[in-house]
Amino acid sequence: MNAPNPQTPPQTAPETVPETVPDAAPPARLLTQPDWQYMVQEVFDLYRTTPAGGSTPIRRHMRQVRETLSKMLQSNPEIAFGQPEQKPVCAHLGRALDNGMGNGRTTSAVRALTKIIPALTWLYGYRKVPKSLAGRYAFADIVGPLGPVMCENLTIGVVLFAPRTVYPQHAHDGITESYICLSGAISENNAGVYVPGSLILNQPGHEHRITTQDREPALLLYAWAGPPDKLRAQEMKFSRPRKPRVMP
Ligand SMILES: [Fe+2]
Fold first, then answer.
1. Residue 149: helix, strand or coil by DSSP?
2. Which of 223, 227, 186, 226 is nearest to 208 (CA)?
3. How much distance in Å is there from the Cα of 171 to the middle of ligand 1?
4. Which residues have their alpha-adjacent CB atom under 5 A from ion ligand 1?
5. Average pLDDT, stretch 173-193?
6. Which domains does the chain have, with CATH numbers?
């Protein structure tokens, strides 16, 4: 063993470098996510250009959707991305999107939708989904109090139905709902057939049941307008089977 060299400076513990915690990434915001911003703009345009058919309640609802979206755009809300998730019905999504191109006013929205689809979380929205429905539908929110684009008093999303689906009768408590057909053809309450560009308004409590055509899927945009507590607490429940009310 060598004797310590008196010339050697005493060894000191290596200087510890304090660990730096990297700053958390700032939350994504609508105006820094162009694909999402364009999608919201497309929804705004659909609620500006879709004909109201002379209906005052429809015109009022469309204005409410536009005003809420306009305020939301100005506030540059956070986008709370969820875990992307698919459901079995998404196997029909490619066909629904293909069919949704070339339908005039709605084509541009479908094209914008394709850009955000990989980030969407497709859900059933019911605690118990009947087996017959599990492979036949799913929805994904785009805007709403639970995200992804945060908005307290409006929910916007898309719902996809497989061909030959009967979506059972249901109603929404305290929420005014509209559907704009983006692809396929549907009937509500057997009272009419709605093709791309058509809008259906369901007032709060209005019982409705959707059916889709035999060989093609259907893709609808939905808007729910209502108080934040109702939008947050909205639990999807099918109504008891009873004869659907026919739309006036
Ligand atoms: Fe509905």
1. strand
2. 186
3. 6
4. 177
5. 97
6. 32-75+83-233 (2.60.120.10)
